[in-house]
């Protein structure tokens, strides 16, 4: 017959059970903490990217953001206020020189041009008429001068005759005086006509030059109208790719409004931007490296905008290999502009850890199984290397991959 277990024994039994489970739980927690501590303080060698500190040359550069654009791009604007009558091409088409792109309504412009042509002919006739009138006027004056000279000659003959008769006693003194007066009057009339002829030549020549100048100005206006009319025949100015066209038939367009864009999609350049604080380090003619993924393209800064806009300065990079297979219009790139050269300096491979000159905490491989965190002073850089100023020596192997999860660790075990 079973006897009833006393309450005191039951309590003792429960206490022993709780104590045993408590020790087991504490052991599990300690073991888990040890495992977490063990794994958090170690890293696999295969997960690390190491760089060896060495001496060499650094072409110091500043980095900028860039965008690939066509080496050539031309915007075609409407030269007149008109509307679109017909569209011959669509975006993406390859076009040759003089390929028609759009047909515009040119009726009013052509009418105005024909009116100007008629006016040109009328002005030409007026100019020719002025030349004839001037020539007639001067010819009449020359004829009057000849007649006046002949009259003067006759008067001089008569004066000589009167003087001869007077010397013989057959003439009178009054007749001699009268003949002298006629000669003097004839000389003045001749001089007056000669002066009129000289003045008339200058005046008529000046009038003709004024009219000729007016005619030349009108011809320039006519040529400008002809050029405008030719430009209104919207055609491709060169062999390229049509990247934009206004295809809305019937749409009203204003003078100067963009109707098409053609681009050379076989050759490219890079338009880049950099903070204006680095503006003094970017100059036309500087060497530049454009990185597209793992590819590096060499180029040269071809132009720099003189003004800062929204805190940035824009510049263009002309590429040596401007038809590289990786180049695509609109592609984002990293641009590095070289501005100085440092010889025989300690250098370390550049990676995402570097954000500019200053102090860094980097892990250095100590032996083969331990990483030690070290304070390092870094200087200038380019897209490949960073200058080491303090904290590292030649031959040190430094982790350049991300170690942010171990930033509070002074040392880490390395597993092979």
What would you say this structure looks like, in words?
The protein is an alpha+beta fold. The chain is built from 3 helices and 20 strands. The protein has helices spanning 7-40, 107-168, 173-231, and strands at 42-44, 50-52, 54-70, 73-77, 82-87, 94-95, 102-104, 240-245, 252-253, 258-263, 268-275, 287-292, 295-304, 312-319, 332-349, 358-365, 370-381, 385-390, 397-399, 411-415. The strands form 4 sheets. It has a 6-stranded antiparallel beta barrel with strand order 3-11-14-13-12-15. Strands 4-10-8-6 form a 4-stranded antiparallel β-sheet, with no helix packed on it. The longest helix has 62 residues, at 107-168. The radius of gyration is 50 Å and the shape is elongated. The model is unreliable at 36-40 (pLDDT under 50).
């Amino acid at each position: 017959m079973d006897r009833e277990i006393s309450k005191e024994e039951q309590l003792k039994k429960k206490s022993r059970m709780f104590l045993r489970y408590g020790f087991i739980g504490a052991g599990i927690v300690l073991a888990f903490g040890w495992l977490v501590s063990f794994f958090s303080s170690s890293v696999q060698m295969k997960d690390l990217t190491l760089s060896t500190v060495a001496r060499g040359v650094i072409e110091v550069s500043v980095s900028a953001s860039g965008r690939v654009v066509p080496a050539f791009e031309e915007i075609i604007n409407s030269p007149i206020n008109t509307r679109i009558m017909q569209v011959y091409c669509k975006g993406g088409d390859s076009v040759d020189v003089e390929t028609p792109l759009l047909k515009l309504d040119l009726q009013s412009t052509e009418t105005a041009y024909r009116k100007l042509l008629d006016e040109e002919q009328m002005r030409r006739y007026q100019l020719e008429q002025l030349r004839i009138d001037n020539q007639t006027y001067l010819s009449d004056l020359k004829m009057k001068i000849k007649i006046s000279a002949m009259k003067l000659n006759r008067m001089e003959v008569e004066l000589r005759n009167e003087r001869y008769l007077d010397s013989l006693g057959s003439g009178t003194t009054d007749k001699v005086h009268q003949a002298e007066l006629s000669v003097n009057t004839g000389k003045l009339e001749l001089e007056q006509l000669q002066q009129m002829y000289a003045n008339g030549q200058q005046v008529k020549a000046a009038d003709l030059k004024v009219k000729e100048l007016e005619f030349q100005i009108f011809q320039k206006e006519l040529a400008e109208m002809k050029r405008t009319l030719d430009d209104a025949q919207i055609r491709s100015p060169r062999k390229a790719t049509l990247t934009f066209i206004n295809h809305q038939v019937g749409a009203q367009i204003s003078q100067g409004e963009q109707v098409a864009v053609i681009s050379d999609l076989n050759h490219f350049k890079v338009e880049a931007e950099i903070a204006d604080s680095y503006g003094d380090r970017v100059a036309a003619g500087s060497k530049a490296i454009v990185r597209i993924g793992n590819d590096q393209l060499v180029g040269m800064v071809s132009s720099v905008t003189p003004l800062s806009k929204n805190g940035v300065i824009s510049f263009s990079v002309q590429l040596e290999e401007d038809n590289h297979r990786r180049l695509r219009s609109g592609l984002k790139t990293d641009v590095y502009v070289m501005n100085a050269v440092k010889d025989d300096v300690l250098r370390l491979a550049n990676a995402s850890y570097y954000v500019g000159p200053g102090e860094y905490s980097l892990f250095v491989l100590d032996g083969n199984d331990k990483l030690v965190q070290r304070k390092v002073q870094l200087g200038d850089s380019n897209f490949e290397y960073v200058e080491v100023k303090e904290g590292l020596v030649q031959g040190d192997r430094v982790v350049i991959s991300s170690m942010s999860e171990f930033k509070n660790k002074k040392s880490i075990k390395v597993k092979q």
